[in-house]
Amino acid sequence: MKQFFTLLLVLAVFSLPLSAQSITLKTDSTVTTKHQVTVKGKRISYTATAGTQPVWDEDGKPIAGLFYTYYERTDVKDKANRPLIISFNGGPGSASVWMHIAYTGPRLLNIDDEGYPLQPYGIKENPHSILDVADIVYINPVNTGLSRAVSTLSKEDTQKKFFGINADIKYLAGWINTFVSRKNRWASPKYLIGESYGTTRVSGLALELQNSHWMYLNGVILVSPTDLGIKREGPVEMANMLPYYAATAWHHKALSPDLQQKDLTDMLPEVEEFTLNELLPAIARGWNLGDQKKKEIAAKMARFSGLSEDIILQQNLNVPPAFYWKELLRKEGYTIGRLDSRYLGIDKQEVGLRPDYSPELTSWLHSFTPAINMYIKEHLKYKTDIKYNMFGPVRPWDNSDDNTGENLRQAMAQNPNLHLMVQAGYYDGACDYFNAKYNMWQMDPGGKLKDRMSFRAYRSGHMMYLRSEDLATSNEDIRVFIQKSLPKPGQPAQYIRGRAGDRSTTTSQLTK
């Protein structure tokens, strides 16, 4: 009888829904598999290590396990000269999936040449991966991907230790220190790459790693950067969106024929100059601008944005981005995407001040979610019942004391070897390309570091690499950035009097 009841209990447990069962987080685990990929016509062998590594508290107890995937080329024995790329996505709360299986990694998800979903879902080789020149680790912060805090940690402690700008930077720097030590990569040139909120993260990490872990970097790559704590309030915030509006209108053929017949990159400098020299001071004057001058400015804004002069006057020269996404194609019955304005959406009603949803984001989740779940389990052989969080619960997020732009400037000033590259998409309305430039201007207003800063823009949106043409170009830009930011053998990290900028690389070499 006792055996009978024991059997019933076992059957009952296994018949419970997954949410009612205990899913144990392994804070320290690895699975390594061997693979090959052809990059730039050359066959490369590599290992992929998928696993978790602990985050420890002050007493050395594991308080979280961060899921990561580490790609290491196997035919390179000299790790001292082999760069290591440490990759983060953003959110906050977003997994590292985006750049992992769509940008720099050795495998790509199945999408068309413009980035739209295709079925059947799947994974293929990435012929543009930067694995030929660098090893790469993709890291998922707590509650993103398969990363989790331990169950014994209280909600309050989890919030305090993980979910805020500076808490995030602090614990991730410690995690990176452990990873670099475990993988014997202290001698390697190191680079951070972050996308969206990941740019806030890696900008802060550059200084935290340097000051608290004495780990010095060769480069930081910001993909679709946030404001990095650099204020854009008032007239600056209002004016700086116009170049993005112009790029979007050009893409949708909503400009006048004389502008439309120009190439995008030939048209935008005129808009940028108008923004800085006329629009910004005009908005700053408010009603003191006068009706006639206000009408003149509105007419020029209409010419560059694809909106009507009346609409712009009704907005007092301040066109909010959400309104623009709703208004530009309103008469055609479409909205445009926030993160990539090439994408179209359909709202329930044509009236309104903002779109009902983000068409680009739902399109991306459509293709990325099946692909990453299949890839981890079927290709990387990492088995778990933990849900892969494309976007995880990390809010409320503590945004106070965001000094990450200044942190990055300090790190560059203190380390003559540290270079910066910014990548942005012309059609990104969340982290727009012109404000990405503005960040660089304001981060180093004296211009002493500008020779170690470079900027690249692409004809797509927030995730510019989803467009096949830009996937090739943007990866090649990273490849060139790495190669040019490596010091020559025997060259010391030092400043030379009379040359305030980079010790060996000129602006013309790094900036197009």
TrEMBL record:
Transmembrane segments: none annotated. Residues 1-20 form the signal peptide. Residues 488-512 are annotated as: Disordered. Keywords: Carboxypeptidase, Glycoprotein, Hydrolase, Protease, Signal. One of its GO terms (molecular function) is serine-type carboxypeptidase activity. PANTHER family: RETINOID-INDUCIBLE SERINE CARBOXYPEPTIDASE, SERINE PROTEASE FAMILY S10 SERINE CARBOXYPEPTIDASE. This is Carboxypeptidase. It comes from Pontibacter arcticus. The lineage of its organism: Bacteria, Pseudomonadati, Bacteroidota, Cytophagia, Cytophagales.
